[in-house]
Amino acid sequence: MSSLLSVGLDVGTTSTQLVASRLTVENRASSFAVPDMDITERAVLYKSPVYFTPLLDESHVDGAAIREIVQAEYQKAGIRREDVDTGAIIITGETSRKENARAVLDALSDYAGDFVVATAGPDLESVLAAKGAGAVELSRTAGKPVLHMDIGGGTSNLALIEDGKILRTGCLNVGGRLIKFQGNGEITYVSPVLSGIFPGKPGEIATQSELRELAESLTQALEMAAGLREPTDLIEKFLTAETGEKWTPPAGEVIVSFSGGVADCVGSELPWNQFGDLGPILGQTIRKSYLCRGQYALGRETIRATVIGAGSYSTQLSGSTVYSQNVRFPLKNLPVVEKNSGIHEGSVVLSLPGIPSPTYAQVREIARELARTHPPELYICLEADMAKALGQALAVQLPPETRILCIDRIRVGEDSYLDIGQPVGGAFPVVVKTLVLERSKHE
């Protein structure tokens, strides 16, 4: 039995926070079988305070200030950079669209250690929030599907989950910080996504009734996403452009689960101007809506759901029957491609389904096809459990100096990137991430 120290950092529209977790790695196989390494326990060791995300202005995240936060929290948690094995830096919501998001990602990744990753994207955020909030576990025990809504400052990330499996994800531009104001209601910021929906402008005074009307529109969009209200063009206005597929509401009855900063305001009696944003009013409006008239639940974690997910659930382990030759770890930010996608142009990971229980002839034929151009390196990620056999077959057909890595039992898509760390008990820790910065998936 061994362990990994994992760090999760969430830089969101409203808040920035860090967690440290201990992941226990155990061999589930008997002493007479092939090792089967798995992450069997995830224990949160440290949670930072929740900071307001520091901004230089509405278009620029203050990377230096975020770096100072990380440095201070590492010291409080007793973490050294060299101790970090894995984890994720997640830039989420509207913050991921800031002009200097790339510079902030690079700065944080450099500080946070060799294997802590930088990532953004609504699909991944939906998955991490659902896992961190406990919604995935709830779907296993509740006997019915769960629709999880992580409602933050700029976006609401959706995940439909059934029996522990996330069926689909989505994202709406619905959040508590789409509008900011002073204590007297004087507006200081209005998100562009509210164009044509909210008429107020910076410098004007927003009344409570106007803010409640806006909160009602946002809540209706969430009700439509949950299949609890007939859809109108309102939901189309709030769908984020970064999501690949149009969101389809669940057809039957579901448990609605909430996390995110706004979830802390659901049912609370906080003053309407407590945070200088729409959060308290939006939370109270949601509590009175169709979303909470059926079975609903607040997440085990609310405002920390995404960062808990990033720190504890972003890492997978490849199968233990893997193959590596001449590879120096860690490998970071390797784009995933599928067959016939120019696989030898730069360092990439080739994603293949593989063959369950393949014959020797089948493995040899796959290896012969892959080795045909004699690439200097060949990194392969398979779904089927056949990495070691394929790696050995490739080694026979390629020059001895070729860098070869074959991992398996991991499903990835072509819009993904991989970080692969030093082997643990014969398996490789792998972080699968999706980069969606300024709507470009392959920058």
Structure description:
The protein is an alpha/beta fold and 443 residues long. Helices cover 25% and strands 28% of the residues. The protein is built from ten helices and 23 strands. Strands 16-23-22-18-19-20-21-17 form an eight-stranded mixed β-sheet. Strands 1, 2, 3, 4, 7 and 8 form a six-stranded mixed β-sheet that branches. Strands 11-10-9-14-15 form a five-stranded mixed β-sheet. Helix 1 packs parallel to helix 2 and helix 3 crosses helix 8. The longest helix has 18 residues. The C terminus is likely disordered.
Brief overview:
Helices cover 25% and strands 28% of the residues. It is α/β, with parallel strands linked by helices.
Query: Helical residue percent?
Result: 10-25%
Give the rounded overall mean pLDDT: 83
Radius of gyration: 23 Å
Q: Work out the number of β strands.
A: 23
Low-confidence sequence ranges: 30-35, 340-344, 435-443
> What separation lies between the terminal Cα atoms?
38 Å
Describe this protein with a few key phrases.
443 residues; alpha/beta; six-stranded mixed sheet; 10 helices; 23 strands; 25% helix; globular; disordered C terminus
What topology does this entry show?
Blueprint lengths: L1 E10 L3 E13 L9 E11 L3 E2 L2 E3 L2 E2 L1 H15 L8 E6 L9 H12 L4 E3 L2 H11 L2 H7 L4 E6 L4 E7 L2 E8 L6 E3 L5 E4 L17 H18 L7 H6 L16 E5 L19 H9 L8 E3 L6 H9 L1 E3 L5 E3 L5 E8 L10 E4 L7 H11 L6 E6 L4 H11 L5 E5 L9 E4 L8 E5 L10
Parallel strand pairs: 1-7, 7-8, 9-14, 14-15, 18-19, 19-20, 20-21
Antiparallel strand pairs: 1-2, 2-3, 2-4, 5-6, 9-10, 10-11, 12-13, 16-23, 17-21, 18-22, 22-23
